[in-house]
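Q: Could you fold this chain for me?
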Amino acid sequence: MLYIIFLTFALAVNALTVHNPPVDGSGGAAPSKPKCHHRVSKHDEYASYPSVQSNSQPMPIGWESGLKNQVTYSTIQPLSASSIVPEVNPNLDFFIIGDWGQPNERQSQVAKVMSDLAYMTKPDFVLSVGDNFYATNETKHDGVLSTNDSKWNDFWLKVYQGFTQSIPWYSVLGNHDWLGDPQSQIEYSRLNPTKWVMPNYFWERTVKLGQHEVAFIMIDTNYLVYSTMEIRPIMLNNFQRAGWTDGNQTVKMHLDWIEGALQRHLDKKYVFVVGHHFLGTCKPVGHMVELQALLDKYQPTAYLYGHHHTLQATSRGKTQYIQSGAGSVMEDSCPDHDGWALGQTNGFVHASVTEASIVFNFWDYTE
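A: Sure. Below is the predicted structure, expressed as structure tokens.
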């Protein structure tokens, strides 16, 4: 069964959560009885939504976002299938999916919904937030071992069809990718630069948005997490091959690069930091604490990530934390999670960006 969950924000002035009756399933993007759950914060000057009738019950899930008005649980009228597309066409549109590289029926179903939705919304690209390729009984190895690894075709090209294969995938690595040959994913990007975009472990991309620019800061969080732990020899060897051998000095190098990128993009309309490991929605581990301090200092628009196999969202100061780690595997939400969370499901996130607002739509598939 497919459920559609909308998380919407612009400038945090008001907020509400909405649980809808089933919507019509026409249009191919959703089965016959999906439900909509809205997570909304809006800027009154720009956003208009269906009228709400509040039952004045407190929101059951905490949402720390510095909102001026009380968060309430509300109900609105059923939506039509066409209403999942914003009335105003976004200037920038993209999908966010993580932990997708486990071939199974759930991956296929999520991929189909992505393809169907892509025909309607025409996203500019997909953000892949890591754990792109898992081990299976047949392949045995995590990640990929070369640019010719069969997983490129079997786990990705054959699965994500239609419009989602006609747009680039902007990618970072997860921990499972570091258990193969991580350099092969960079090399594949050089061979297929219009499809798989990952020119390095840390990289940046600036996109035009009307008269403004949007920055994407793509980071590798693996050393920040695993340099403080006992890890498998293959990951340690891969860190050494990358030149990441001197502990705290490498951590400092990574954090310095991230801070430099945040400083370079202070003039951008929006700044998205994209990594694999969680912050905000789950308790940070290792040197992710220092990364959290940087995000607190510079307050980018959002941090987008996966790793924990759930769909979650929260905010901290002016920064939204959007977790999309349920592309093919699932688990319970973090026991210490802060904010909105949906575990034991699979799905992805659809982001629509205009000069006035950003809308994150959480798409959830449960068998």
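A (continued): Residues 89-362 form a domain with the Purple Acid Phosphatase; chain A, domain 2 fold (CATH 3.60.21.10).
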